[in-house]
Amino acid sequence: MGENFLLSNDVAVELYHQYAKDLPIIDYHCHISPQEIYENKKFNNITEVWLYGDHYKWRAMRANGVEEELVTGSASDYDKFLAWAKTVPMTLGNPLYNWTHLELQRFFGIYDILNEKTAPMIWEKVNELLNQDDFTVRELIKKSGVKVICTTDDPVDSLEYHQKLIAEGDFPVQVLPGFRPDKGLEINRDTFTPWVEQLSQAANTSIASYDEFLVALESRINFFHELGGRVSDHALDKVMFAPTTKEEVNAIFQKALSGEKVTVEEETKYKSYTLVFLGKKYASLGWAMQFHINALRNNNGRMFEELGPDTGYDCMNDDLVSKPLVQLLNTLESENLLPKTILYSCNPRDNQLLSSIIGSFQGGGIRGKMQVGTAWWFNDHKDGMLDQMKALANVGLFSPFIGMLTDSRSFLSYTRHEYFRRIVCQLVGEWVENGEAPHDMELLGSIVQGISYYNARDYFQFEKALIKG
Length: 469
Fold this sequence. Notes:
By secondary structure, the chain is α/β, with parallel strands linked by helices. 49% of the residues lie in helices and 8% in strands. The strands form 3 sheets. The protein has a 5-stranded parallel β-sheet, with helices on one face.
């Protein structure tokens, strides 16, 4: 993993080092804590910053035979770190191997290979650095050249730490809320009725009807917007759509509020109408709408009962996507109220499908209005990123692609942008080497820089968000 890691030809080397390497980062979707940013958390040890909440690493450790006590259990932080260090050599071929060593190199200046033998030395050296003032959360973010962070926030969240960061006014990175109303869409889950009550309290309004529910949702969207929010996000594990009316959906809503389970057909109608309503609101405010599609979550029932969600027991789903997704997008487009939209699928089978769908809805004078998002979750490795970009290039336009995000809970994950940028440069360099693209560095450099940073800057226009202390 030297300076030309992943770069195997001269064009790729020049593109990365001269055009991509030093660009800032816009992390437009992640799961880091705004509270930890505001409080400028200082980590006690590398386990806290590396292994707490990282289900990518947890899955690898379990696959390597590590007992759960050393993964999510009550073992000491050192023992958990040592279990991870023993696992790292076995992750060859997995991006975790590269990410682990990129993070050690870029943040801590450690170029040793992490394994059982080097673990004690690395533990001591990293922990010593983490306890210094220039390794706090805010310093790690600034060291990475981050300009914008979009967190993932429930509509009922108070956003108090976003507000405190704005009021403080001395952190040079925009930390903006991302609107994630999944609990308000999952009408058949036990969490729905309690969540509606939470929404009522957050919006300071009663919710006894579907109309009042929509008013409350709109109120929270406006609140997010006032604090600089410009993105929404939806986990559409299964894409559903059916034409319906507000009267039908109100009856379904009342049924759910009374504690009854709704049918699949009713759930489909409820989600369809609600998503169309939300999409129109996003369009009116100039937001980008994100759909994360085809994940199958919480597959291990026993471990779900023990550990809860987001603990590493999810996989790709293989539901059909095209017809219901097109119907949803077309319903918004029919009123010229389709917002900027980013589509991600957990199943790489969908790359070309999504690339073809977005071509049906481009326009409005917005470059790359419809996007196929960067390779997501089980696909955010070299082959997955290449597959996503090649599908996009083959079926649509590669050059307006808005590029990488971390989708992470870790403050060390910004090296994934470097990993991604190297892969972009290598891909473009291969096109030149193969005679498929001209050796025009002005053209190639502008495309690489766009995908690395400028396309996202121009697409989201976060710098125009009205944020006042």
